[in-house]
Design a protein that fits this description.
alpha/beta, 8 helices, globular
């Protein structure tokens, strides 16, 4: 499906690799001016931006820690100086995701996840919501996970933070609806990216065998879902969670 995002400005956090890179590239493919955020490797982020530009789009790299308010505000100012007011925000950035048994779980381990999935989105939305309200337009898209429905064991630090992120999505959607700003969440299943290169193939095969569609998804599947929610075709959809996992979970 073709989505027209021409003249839109999209900021994608954590876009130097994995799902973030796929999302950024898909938005660029559909015409958006893409701000590729990274915290680690600017070289990897630049490669994403270069691929967008090679395909005829416009993109640039903006380095910032989305957990740091000053850095986020500076990044937003820099993006808007380069491309104009931000129309689309994709909250994708994440960090290490350790598996922890209850006996090993610490409050800090929970806070580490909340920093990415609650604090970061809050700071980012606060930096852009004013101008979106003034224009009565905007798209906020969170990248969640199927784990909140699956209740993945030994992963409660991550699962609980993803639940909190969904709560933000729903509450913000209701608060911002009068300004025609939509807030939705795309929740992927397990989609292998660079993060999973060391995972055994047997583990991936076992996961795929339990999916009704009998296969794993690819990063572009997430990019397409985000592009739809960012498009005019989704202007009456808000407060929703779109799960992209081949039917592995049902709402």
């Amino acid at each position: 499906m073709k989505h027209n995002l021409s003249n839109k400005v999209a900021l994608v956090t954590g876009a130097s690799r994995g799902l973030g890179a796929a999302i950024a590239q898909k938005l660029g493919e559909y015409g958006a001016n893409v701000a590729v955020n990274c915290f680690g490797s600017t070289e990897m982020a630049q490669a994403v931006a270069d691929r967008i530009c090679a395909g005829g789009g416009r993109a640039a790299v903006f380095k910032a820690d989305i957990r740091d308010e000053a850095q986020v505000r500076q990044m937003v100012a820099d993006v808007q100086s380069r491309f104009g007011l931000i129309d689309i925000v994709v909250c994708n950035a994440t960090g290490p995701q350790p598996m922890l048994k209850i006996e090993d779980l610490t409050w800090q381990a929970c806070l580490d996840q909340l920093e990415f999935f609650v604090k970061g989105p809050v700071i980012l939305l606060q930096a852009v919501v004013g101008q979106m309200k003034e224009r009565r337009s905007g798209r906020i898209i969170q990248i969640g996970s199927e784990v909140f429905e699956m209740g993945t064991p030994e992963f409660s630090n991550y699962v609980s933070a993803k639940g909190a992120q969904l709560g933000l999505t729903r509450s913000w959607a209701m608060e911002l609806a009068p300004w025609q700003i939509t807030v939705n969440q795309v929740s992927p299943g397990w989609i292998p990216t660079e993060r999973h290169t060391s995972d055994p193939q047997s583990m991936k095969d076992a996961y795929a065998a339990n999916i009704p569609m009998k296969r794993m998804g690819v990063p572009d599947d997430i990019g397409e879902a985000v592009a739809f929610l960012a498009s005019d075709g989704a202007n009456f959809i808000t407060g929703q969670k779109v799960t992209v996992n081949g039917g592995n979970s049902l709402e």
